[in-house]
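Q: Convert this sequence to C-alpha cells.
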Amino acid sequence: MEFLLLGSLAVRRSGTLLELGGPRQRAVLTMLLLHANEAVSAALLTDAVWDSPPVAPESNLRTYVAGLRKVVGDRLVTRSGHGYQLTVLPGELDLDAFDQLVRDGENALTENDAESAADLFGKALAQWHGTPTAELNAGPLLRAELTRLQERRLAAVERFAKATLELGRFDDVVDRLRRETAQHPLREELWALLMLAQDRSGRRGEALETYATARKHMVEQLGVEPGGRLRQLHQVILESRVPSPAALSAHRQLPMDIAEFTGRESELRRLLEPGPQTTVVISAIEGMAGVGKTKLAVRAAHRLVERYPDVQLWADLHGFDADELPADPSAVLESFLRLLGVPGGQIPESLEDRAALYRDRLTGKRALVLLDNAAGEDQVRPLLPGSATCVVLITSRRTLLQLDGVRSLFLDVFTPPEALALLSRIAGHDRVAADREAAERIAEICGHLPIAVALAAKRLARRPQWTVRDLVDRLERGGGLGARGVFDLSYQALPENQRRLFRLLGLHPGEDVTADSAAALAGLTAHEAGDLLETLLDEHLLQQHTPDRYGLHDLLRAYAVEQVNAAEPPPARALARRRVLDWYVHTSWRSAQLLNPQRQLEIGPADPAVHPRSFADRDMALLWCDTERANLVAAIRDAAEHDLPEHSWSLAQCLWDFFNLRKHWADWLDTHGVALAAARSVGDRSAEGRMLITLGIALREVRRHDEAIDCYEQALAIFRAVGDRSRQVPTLNNIGIVHMAEGRPEDALACYEQSAEIAGELGDLHTAAVLLNNIGLLHSDAGRFDVALARYLRALEIRQEIKDPYSEAILLNNVGEVYRGLLDFTQAVTYVERALETFRAIGDLYGQAESLDNLGLALDGLGDRRGAEKCWLESATVFEELGEPKAHEVRARL
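A:
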C-alpha cells in the first residue's frame, strides 16, 4: 500500500487510487498519517477535524473510522482508552521518505559534501506534489500540524538552495526560489537566498529588484521593514563590499556568446591551448576592424570558463572609438576592484597602487580577464594579473609585441570557405548551395570581412523571394565594395523610421543605448523605440552584450555618424542631442531626489517630447545610476563639447550624491572639472560657484585639502559678489569641515558659526541642523560636553520638522556619545539604540558599526560587560566587511 500525504491526500493499492470519502474523513486520515504507528486520541482527532465540534463528536469519528477501514482494512485499529492507530509499513508513506532524505542531506552537509546534500535535498523535495490542505475540512490542530509540515518543507528548500549555491548551480536555485517566494512572500530567508543566487550569477540588477519586491510585501502586508539580514544583504549587493559572488560565478561577467559564430576553428584551438604553468597566459588577438576579434575572444572565453571558474572580468577599452577617449586604465582598475570586493573608499588613488592591489586580489585565483579594443601596451599593462593561475585575452587593431610573454594571434578576414559557411548559416544552406558561384561573389564583394558577410547574409535571409544572384546584382549596382557597400544596402533597405533611428544613434553619448534613451533621442515613445531597436538588432546593425542594452560596432557607429551628418540638418541634430541629454538630466534629477531628498537642485525644463524615468524607491534609483554610469559620464562631456553647457553642469550637479555614495572619485573629479569649465565658458557665475563647491567636496574626500580650500574660497567670492547668501552657507560649512580635518578647530568653529548665522536668517532648517551638529562635534572633541549637548538637542528639535533619517541617525549617535562623556550611561544607551535602529532601517552599515561601538561603550559604563562585548564583536565584524581600519580599534576592546 502507498500513502501520499505530501500534496493531495491519496492512498494507492497496486497502483490503483482508493476512494477516501469526504473532507472530514480525509482529515481524520491525514491526522492518523501524521502520527503513523501511534495512537491518536479522540480528543486530538476532534480538534483536528472541527473548529466547532458537534455535541457528540465520538459518534462522528467512529463513522469516519469505519469508512477508512473499508480502505485500509485491519491496518486501522482501536486502542482501548488511547484512541485509534494506523499501521504504516516502512517505505509506504511519502512523509517518511522525505524525512529520511532530509536527515541524510543534513549528514552530508555536516561532512561538507555539498554535492550529495544538494542531491538528497532535491530528492526529498521531489516527494512533494502539492499543498496538503486543499481538500480538507481541517480544524485548528490539523491546520497547525500542516503548517509545521510546510515549515519542514521550506527548511528543506532553504538547505537545498544553500547546498546548490555552494556548487555554483545558480539557475536551478533561482527558478525554484522564484516559485517559493511567490507562494511564501513573507519568508525572508527565501528572499535572501534568491538575492544571493541572482547576485552570484551576475544578475545584480535582478537581485536588487528582488529586494524591492520583498520589501513591498513586508511593508504592505505587515507594516514593517525587512529584517536586518535582508537589509544587510541588500546593502552588501548594492555596494559590492565582499568579494563579489557575481564576479566569482561561472561565466556571468562575460558578454553574451553568439549562436551564429562560424569558422575560426584553428584560431580557437590556439587560444584554448594550455600555456606555461609558471606565468600568466596572455593571448592577443590582432586584426583590422570588423574582422571578428571580439566574437572570437568571447567564444574562447566561454570555452575557458571551466578552467578559470573563480573570476571572470571584462572591459571594453575603447581604444579605437572615434567618439570616446581610450579607457583610463586607472578607471578600469577601479571597476575591477569593486567587482573583487574592494569598497570604493578603500580603492587607492594612484594607478600603481590600484594595479598592485588588483594583482594581490587575483593571486592564486583561477581568473580570466578579457580586455577588448585595447589601444596599446601602456593601456593594457596595468590590467594584467601577476599570478600564473590567470589567463588574459586581449583584442586590438595594433600589434602588442612589447607585452612580456604575449602570444599574438593575427586574425585575417575569413577564408572563402568560412565566408560561405557564415552565409549558409544565416541565409540558408540550400539557397547558397543552389548558386555557389554567386555566393562566392557576395563573399568577394564583402572583402570576406565577417561583419559585412553577416549583414549581407541577413539581408538575403530577410528577402526569401531573392536569389543569391539578386543580392549580387544589388551589391554591384550600388558600386560599393567591402563593408561600406553592404552597410549601404542594409541601411537603404530599411523603412525610413528605422533608418532615422539608426543614424540618430550616431549622436547618442556613451557606450550603449536603451529604449528609453533612444526614445528621447528620436522623439518617440519607449515602446516605439524598443521595437525599432529590436528590428535593427535582427538586421545585424546593432549588437547586444546584455539584455535591453544595444550598441553599435565601431564601423557601424562611424557609418551612422556619416549618415546623420548627411541626412539631418544641423538644427535637427542639435534637437536630437538636446532631447537625449534632457532625458539624462531629468532622469538623474529624479534619482537624486530619492538619493538625497534634502539636496536643492536647479535644472531647466525638459523638451515636451522627453519622458524621464521615474523610480519606485531609492534602491531602484541607485540601480539605474549604477547601470547608466558610463553613459552619464559621457553625457556630461558630450554636452560640454556640443555647446550645451547648462546640460553639462546640471547633470554633474544631479550626480554628485551618487558619485559620493559609490566613491567614484575619478568620475566625480573628471565630470565636475568638465562642468566647471563649461560654466566658465559662458560666464555663468552661479553655476561656476556650484561646481566649485562640489568639486571641492571631491577634492576634500581624496584629502587634497589645499585644492579643496581653493575651490571653496573661489566659490565664496563668487556668491558674495552676486549676493547669493544661500550658497554662502554650504560653502562656509565645507571650509569648516576641511579646517576640522586639518586640526584647526578654532578656524572651523568660526566658519560654522558664520554659516549658521546666515542659515538662521534665511530659515534654512536643514543646514542649521547640520551646522549645529558640526559645532557640537567641536565642543565634544574639546571635552565641553554640556555645550555640545545643548547644540545637539537643539539640532534634534529641528530634525523633528525635517525628514532626513540619515542625518538624524548621526545626530542621535552623537548625543549618545556626549551622554557617555557626561557619565549618564542610561541616556547614552537610549539615544544610541535609536541611532542604531535608524541606521538599520536605511541600510547604512558604517553607521551601524559606529553606533554598535558607541552602544558597547555605554553598556560597559553601566557594567554590562557581556552586552558590550556582543556589540563590539558585531561592530568589528561589520567594520572588517567594509575594510575599515577602525575594526582593529574596536576588536581591541574585546
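Residues 251 and 327 are 23 Å apart (CA to CA).
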